Structure formats: structure tokens, C-alpha cells
Amino acid sequence: MASEVEDDAAAVLTNGGAGAAEVRRRRDQAKEILSKQAVKIATKAEEHERFIFKVTHLLGVLGFGTFCYLLGARPQDVPYVYCLFYVIFVPLRWIYYRYKKWHYYLLDFCYYANTFLLVMILFYPKDEKLFMVCFSFAEGPLAWALIVWRCSLVFSSFDKLVSVLIHLLPGIVIFTIRWWNPQTFAAMHPEGRAARVTWPYVEDKSYLWTWLFAVPLAAYTLWQLMYFLIVNVLRRQRLLKDPEVMTSYRELSKKAQKANNIWWRLSGLLGDRNRPLMYILLQALFTVATMALTVPIFLSFQMHVVFQILKVCASTWNGGSFILEVMPRQVVQKEKKKLEMKPMEEANSSQNAEESQGDLSANGQHSSEHS
């Protein structure tokens, strides 16, 4: 009897192990299929790069004009336009980045913050505390990253356009909810009362600093821990094996080293081995400083308006600099690369032609011998 029970238990364990292995196999197979499809789509996009640039520029300009109209005519709809943008363009960016081996960028804080805002709009639109956390994210680290990291508003570049909107749109959405949304405006100007009230309701300064600084900073710390666990622990070997896989730290350190700027020198204060740690510390200081600045912006409509204008002007200025200074160099480099590749392609095609000709003559000789 005991042996039968043991046999049954062993059979269950064996079947369970086989089931788990099958699940893992199917999951890996699905990931492989998705990766292959992402590569196919991105390859096709690169083949028709010029046409896509023209279409992107056209749609970008038309979309920008439509968004400006909505901003003035129906500000209450702006959050839902943002949600539509997020659910369409972030998956498309994953496809493109997966092909380019940049997909670890989607673990960055900006996507974490955007996800918070998406959840708030769709599921908790009247949660004042969550709104204040999203305000701190949008007008703190995301907004200043747009300025500090020189994001460029270039309508002909899908990648750059999405990068700007990922950092710019959350602040505009927060601005419309805070000051222009009819429901919010009605709550801030109740009938029968001369005194203006606030939305969200702020009890005192400590409440303000709690939900605009302390809680968002705790949420940022949680993201930093998760990011470190995924990139520096769980996927460490994968990143070490393939230096072409990019992360934010790899890109920023590469640019800083090339320019030998202040960020490269600061990150090396504790030695080269501790540069990732210094990068985390510098990013934390940046986050603390920018979140603290959201408190006066939250209290002042005029300051908030000026800040929106500053962000748009900075990204537009950077876009003009990119079009005039960077794009011509990129075009020259691409043409140069094509010219360098042309002799190799011609040599390969002639070699293939010779091989096929040799195969044909060999087949003809073989058939004549049989005849």
C-alpha cells in the first residue's frame, strides 16, 4: 500500500515537472515568435525609411495641430487622447526597440511614471492623492529630463517624436486636469462662496510635501530597486554577453565618456568600478531636486503656464538644432556606408553569378555524358 502511494506521488511529480517544462517551452516559443515578428517589422521599416520619415512628418504636424485645437476647445478630453497615444505608440516602440536591442529602455522611470498616470486616468480619476503623486512625476523628473537630456521635437523622426511626447504629454495632461478641466474648475469655484478653494484639497503644508515629495520619492525608490534587480542581477549575464544591448546607463556613460563632460567626471569620483553606483546616486539627487520644485509649481497657475512654455520651447529648439546640425551628418554617414557596401555587394553578386554559371555548365556536361 505504501509503495503504491509513493508510486502515485512520484507519477504526480513527474507529470507536474513535465507540465511545467511544457509551459516553459511554449512561453519561450511565444517569445521567439514575437521577437522574430518584431525584427521583420523593423527591417521592413528600415527598407522604406525615407517614405516613413515623410509620412511621420505629415502625421506629426497634423497631430500636433489637432492636439492644440483639443487643448483649447475640449481640455477635458486631453487625458483620453494621452491614453490612446500610450496604448498605441508604446507597444510600437517596443517592437522597434526589440529589433535595435534597446528594449531595456522601456524599464526606465519615464515609462513607470507614465503607467502611473494611465492607471489614474482610467481607474482612479478622482483620487486626489494619486493625482498629486502623478503631478510630482510629470512635472518633476519627466519634465526636467526633457530639458536636461535635450529631447528633440523632430516631426520626421518617429523615435524622437515619441521620446518627446513620453516626457511632455504627462505634464500637459496634469496641467489640464489641475487648471482647465470643467469639473475641476467647478470644484475650485463653488457657487455661493466668494473664497476660492483648491483641488486637490490641501489641508496644510505638511500634507502638500507628503503627497508631492515624500510619497513620490518612495515610489521612485521602489522603481529603482526593481530596475537594479532586473538589469544588474537577473539580466546581468545577458547584458555582459551582448555589448550591443543598450540600457540608459550604457548610453549615457558612452556619450559622457566621449564628451568627457562633467557627468563623466562626477560618475568617476569613486573609481571606474563604481560608476553604476554613482549613476544611481546622481539620478537620485536629480529626482529629489526636481520633485521638490513641483511644490511651488503646484501652487501657482502662472508658474505652471510658464513651465509648460519652457518645456515646449526647449524641445522645439533642440529639434531645430538636430535638423540643422545632426541630420546632415547622419545622411552623409549613411551615404558613405552605402558606397562602402556597394563594391562588396557587387563582388558577392558576381561571385554568385559565377557559381550559378559553373553549376549550369557542370549540369550540362553531366547530362551530355548520360546522353
TrEMBL record:
Compositional bias per record (Low complexity), positions renumbered to this chain: 346-355
Transmembrane residue ranges: 51-72, 78-97, 104-124, 130-149, 161-180, 208-231, 277-299
Classification lineage: Eukaryota, Viridiplantae, Streptophyta, Embryophyta, Tracheophyta
Biased composition (Polar residues): 358-371
Entries under Pfam families matching the protein: DUF2838
GO molecular function: acyltransferase activity
Assigned keywords, A-Z: Acyltransferase, Lipid biosynthesis, Lipid metabolism, Membrane, Phospholipid biosynthesis, Phospholipid metabolism, Transferase, Transmembrane, Transmembrane helix
Segments of skewed composition (Basic and acidic residues): 335-345
Source species of the chain: Oryza sativa subsp. japonica
Keyword Transcription regulation among UniProt keywords: no
Similarity remark: Belongs to the GPC1 family.
First-listed, main subcellular location of the protein, grouped into a coarse class: membrane
Family annotation (InterPro entries): GPCAT
Membrane topology: Multi-pass membrane protein
Biological process according to GO: phosphatidylcholine biosynthetic process
Protein name: Glycerophosphocholine acyltransferase 1
Compartments where found: Membrane
GO CC entries: membrane
Residue numbers spanned by region Disordered: 335-371
Lineage top rank: taxon: Eukaryota
